[in-house]
Amino acid sequence: MRLVIIGPPGAGKGTQAQYLVETFGLAHVATGDLFRAAISQGTPLGQEAKKYLDAGQLVPDAVTVSMVRERLREPDCQRGFLLDGFPRTVPQAEALQAMLAENGAALDAVLNIDVPEEKLVARLTGRRVCRRCGANYHLVYNPPRVAGVCDRCGGELYQRSDDTEETVRRRRQVYREQTAPLLAYYRQQGLLREVDGDQSVQEVGRAVLRALGRQ
Ligand code: ADP
Ligand code: ADP
Ligand code: ZN
């Protein structure tokens, strides 16, 4: 299975992705996580990407597409993958389609997790992320069993430096201008599956399975 999960920052893409990849045995390809790993390792890619993440802007398409192309060549992706946070622009979507077509492959579905704008700031400012495995938590809506500690791996939880109100506002604008047009692109291809993300984590999870025809 080859899936894409789209939604504005804070919609719950990463949270649902975590369940989906476990349920279906997919590789989890999250471009934000890949950029953050490159930044913390200080690679040339990380040095290039950092200024964009700090500003809440998109990393240029050429850089992002070549990173994804390399990642999708790795063995774990051959069993199927879930793209989380990619594509985010129409040119990225076109590049993805061409990349898959080279191997005679195509996407099975694109999930759009929709959440009213006014709920997103609270989701993002309360978000905490595991330094070790990348799992997402929320101080109020999805707290870990022990404060500050990841349930899955015992790693330390931290707050992302781009989860501040100002950067969140910028990211949302970038979403509206550059990512929202993707919905029409995928709807036209008959791939788009709409999911109401304004419910509990468990309810959204069930809606995702229904949207995929798996429940
Ligand atoms: P969120 O989960 O809040 O939507 P991500 O972790 O997916 O955020 O992305 C964090 C940042 O990484 C983005 O603000 C952007 O700077 C960069 N980024 C992630 N994915 C892409 C992409 N597909 N194209 C360009 N930049 C990206
Ligand atoms: P995205 O990857 O789309 O930016 P996340 O999965 O990181 O979003 O979720 C953003 C924040 O909202 C996290 O703190 C997460 O724990 C929380 N969250 C995710 N899904 C829900 C939900 N259905 N209800 C309330 N909070 C949620
Ligand atoms: Zn963890």
Map the helices and strands.
Layout: E1 2-6, H1 13-24, E2 27-30, H2 31-41, H3 44-55, H4 61-72, E3 81-84, H5 90-102, E4 109-114, H6 117-125, E5 127-130, E6 136-138, E7 157-158, H7 165-179, H8 181-188, E8 192-196, H9 201-211
Parallel strand pairs: 1-3, 1-4, 2-3, 4-8
Antiparallel strand pairs: 5-6, 5-7
Helix pairs in contact: 1-9, 2-3, 4-5, 6-7
One adenosine-5'-diphosphate binds at residues 7, 9-15, 123, 126-127, 136-138, 141-142, 199-201, 204.
Q: Mind telling me the C-alpha Rg?
A: 16 Å
Which regions are unreliable across 5 or more consecutive residues at pLDDT < 50? none
Q: Give the name of the CATH superfamily.
A: P-loop containing nucleotide triphosphate hydrolases
The number of distinct structural domains comes to 1
Chain-averaged pLDDT? 96
Please bin the fraction of helical residues: 40-55%
Give the strand order, joined by hyphens, for the main sheet. Answer: 2-3-1-4-8
Order of helices and strands: EHEHHHEHEHEEEHHEH
Enter the CATH topology name: Rossmann fold
What does this entry look like structurally?
- The protein is of the alpha/beta class and 215 residues long.
- The chain has one domain: Rossmann fold (3-Layer(aba) Sandwich), CATH 3.40.50.
- Helix content is 48%, strand content 15%.
- A hairpin with a 5-residue loop joins β5 and β6.
- α1 packs across α9, α2 packs across α3 and α6 packs across α7.
- The protein starts with a strand and ends with a helix.
- The model has no long low-confidence stretch (mean pLDDT 96).
- The structure holds adenosine-5'-diphosphate (2 copies) and zinc ion.
- The site of zinc ion (ZN) has 8 residues, from loops.
